[in-house]
Design a protein that fits this description.
Strand order of the largest sheet: 7-6-8-9-10-14-15
Oligomer: single chain
Order of helices and strands: HEHEHEHEEHEHEHEHEEHHHEEEEE
CATH superfamily of the largest domain: Response regulator
Helix content: 40-55%
Bound molecules: phenylalanine
Radius of gyration: 23 Å
CATH topology of the largest domain: Rossmann fold
Distance between the termini: 64 Å
Number of domains: 2
Number of strands: 15
CATH class of the largest domain: Alpha Beta
Largest sheet: 7 strands, mixed
Number of helices: 11
Amino acid sequence: MKLRTVTFSPAISILAVVMAFSLFISSCKTAGGPAGNDIPVGEFASLTGGTATFGQSVHNGDVLAVEEINGAGGVLGKQLRLVTEDDQSKTEDAVASVQKLVNSDRVIAVLGEVASSRSMAGAPICQQAHVPMITPASTNEDVTKKGDYIFRICFIDPFQGQTMARFALNSLGKKRAAILTDVKQDYSVGLDEAFKNTFTFNGGVIVSEQSYSTGDKDFHAPLTSIKGANPEVIFVPGYYTEVSLIVRQARELGIDCPILGGDGWDSPELTKGAEKEFNNTFFSNHFATEDPDTTVQSFIKKYQDKYHAVPDAMAALGYDATRILADAIKRAGSTDSVALKNAIAGTKDFPGVTGRITIDKFRNASKPITIIKVVDGKFHFAQRIGPNGEALTPFQP
Ligand code: PHE
């Protein structure tokens, strides 16, 4: 680094002092914290970048919940104030975002992220600062192992992988599977393993294992290898941007078997321009808009009124996470970090849009999972499976 000597005129020096002072005053104001007249809650999300729909949806869900809570008088007599940081779908930016939220904005809790790798990057910062973090949507098993201040309100990938392996074997009757994994994402790697273990344990065979990296656009090489192994079903535990291209290219190569995935598929972008290619695909998810449950339908209505769009799973999870946090602050009776952490841990039978949510001793949520069938670009409800793997509804082929 080069050092330069700069001389200031007196006018500029005075200006600098005034600016520094006003910056100090404003930082005192935003640092408000629990003693201020509002309650600052942090949120880090991928509002832009490769998984932008994840961040935008979760943010919409968070905002809807905050507005509702504040409209009903807030929490402990104060309004919630959401402080949002865009991490641009990048792990390094997730770290910087959480550092800012915790150290400068002095938030009392952090909501986020959606992608597991980014939640795992942010979690140690929250843990070290004793700021409770709730990820609405990160399903990799290791996320909540980062410490006792780290929670999630979604199911975990071992459950998701097992569910899709059993679905392939039992509901679809397929015994030969290929897997195509994004080696850059903890989410994808964890889901791959869970699927593989359950599939082979129950008599299935993995005929080909191929990989790719986030950002890749051409999947012809791994797909050609997969085709050569002649699988009856393919599991692609990736995020929608790449999955959208993978399914398209697989169909171009004449691969017409069922293709399965996990919650990372859930995006309005998934099937755009490839509605036909996505027929005969299924993925596990947290929520289905066709669910007749009144909690679900009333959420969909409120969301549509505000955003003129149909909510996806992240929106529903963001809404649930924010409401669970508000509920915990109320039960804690304060925003003290230990009291708040204990109250979140004590969440029991919370009536979420994504199901009844109870936080277990590993700070994970025990709840049902939904299997979605994609038909002409639309996501249809196919089956609901309970937390112990039991079919709660029959499979609707
Ligand atoms: N479960 C994914 C992860 O952990 C994120 C995700 C959640 C994506 C919900 C879509 C819907 O990385």
